[in-house]
Design goal:
homodimer, 10 helices, 2 domains, Arc Repressor Mutant, subunit A, Tetracycline Repressor, domain 2
C-alpha cells in the first residue's frame, strides 16, 4: 500500500527496514548485507536502522522471526485437536515458505547459517530461546522430540525448495501434508 | 600416509585431488573453490585435474558421492531386516557425518546449494539420477516417500551439525537413533 504526501510513521519505517533486510539477507546472506545497504534499500538514513535495532545482528534476529514466528507456531499447535498437530504444522510452514517474503527470509537464513558461525549462533540462540521450550511445553513432550520435528520441517524446506528434488518439489500441498504430517505426528504421539 | 621417493599412481592422484576438492568445497563452497586451488592443494598440475575429471562440475559431482554413496545407502537398506531400515539409515548417516572428510563434504554441498543455482542443479541431478530410484526400488516404496526420508535426514544434519540446536546437538548416537529412526521407519512401513 503506497502512501504519499506524509512521512511514514515509526511502525511503517521499522517494517520498511525489516523488509529491506529480509530482501538483502535473502539475496546476499548475512555477511553480504550491510546496515548501509539495508538503509539505502529502505530509503532511510542508516542512523535510523541503528536507532530501531541497534546492530546488524539485531536486524537479522528480528527479520529471522518471520519464517518461524513463535506465536504462530504455538497457535498452530494449540488451536485444534492433538491428533492433527502434525498436519497443522506442515500446513503452516508450507504457507510460510510459499509466501515470497518468508521464503526469501528462510533462504537468507539458510545461506547465512551455512556460511557464518555467527549466523548459526544467532539462529541457535533464537530457536533455543524463543521456540523450543514454548513448543515442548505446548505439546507436553521433551525438547529433544521438538528438535526431531524441527529437523523434519527444515529438511522438507531443503529438499523441496532449495535442492528442489522431484517428486517432492512438484508435489501439491495436499500431497506434501499427506507425506510429512504423519512423520511429525509420531513425534507428538510417541509414548 | 606420506609416500616419498616415487610418483603416486593414478588412483592415488585421483584420490588426492578429490580430498583437496572436498576440503576446498567444504571451506569455500562451490564458487570459492577453483580447479587451480584444488590442484595446488593436491600438489598436482591443474591439467591433471582436467584430465581426471574434465571440469570443476565433475570434480564437485564426484566429491559429492562421498557423503551419500549410493552403494552404501542401498546396502544399509538391504543388509538386514526391514523393520530396522530406519535405524540402519540413521546410523549410516551419523557415521558419515562424524567422519571429518564426509562432514566437510556435506557442509561444502550445503553451502553451495544454498548460494548457487548451479550447485543445487548438480545435487538435484545426482540425487534424482543416482539415489532416489535405487532406494525406492530397494525398499519397494514410491519415490515421494524416499524424499520424505531424505528430508528427515538432511534436516537432522542441519539441526544437529550446522545450527547445532540443543538438546539434539549434544545427544549421543544412541539417543539420536532412538529419536529419528522411528520417523524414518514409518515412511517405510506406511500402507
Amino acid at each position: 500500500m503506497a502512501r504519499t504526501g506524509r512521512r511514514p510513521g515509526q511502525t511503517e519505517t521499522r517494517e520498511a527496514i525489516l523488509a529491506a533486510a529480509r530482501d538483502l539477507f535473502g539475496r546476499n546472506g548475512y555477511e553480504g548485507a550491510t546496515i548501509r545497504a539495508i538503509a539505502a534499500e529502505a530509503g532511510v538514513n542508516p542512523a535510523l536502522v541503528h536507532h530501531f535495532f541497534g546492530s546488524k545482528d539485531q536486524v537479522f534476529a528480528t527479520a529471522l522471526h518471520l519464517p518461524a514466528d513463535p506465536g504462530a507456531v504455538v497457535s498452530a499447535i494449540l488451536d485444534g485437536p492433538r491428533p492433527q498437530v502434525g498436519e497443522r504444522l506442515v500446513r503452516l510452514f508450507l504457507t510460510l515458505w510459499e509466501t515470497p517474503a518468508s521464503r526469501d527470509a528462510f533462504f537468507g537464513v539458510l545461506r547465512s547459517v551455512s556460511t557464518t558461525e555467527q549466523a548459526a549462533d544467532m539462529l541457535r540462540g533464537f530457536i533455543q530461546g524463543a521456540l523450543l521450550d514454548k513448543i515442548a511445553d505446548a505439546l507436553d513432550i521433551p525438547p529433544l522430540r521438538v528438535t526431531g520435528i524441527a529437523a523434519q520441517l527444515v529438511g522438507l524446506a531443503m529438499v523441496r525448495y532449495v535442492v528442489q528434488v522431484d517428486p517432492l518439489a512438484r508435489a501439491s500441498h495436499e500431497d506434501v501434508v499427506a507425506l510429512i504430517a504423519p512423520a511429525v505426528q509420531q513425534y507428538v504421539d510417541r509414548a
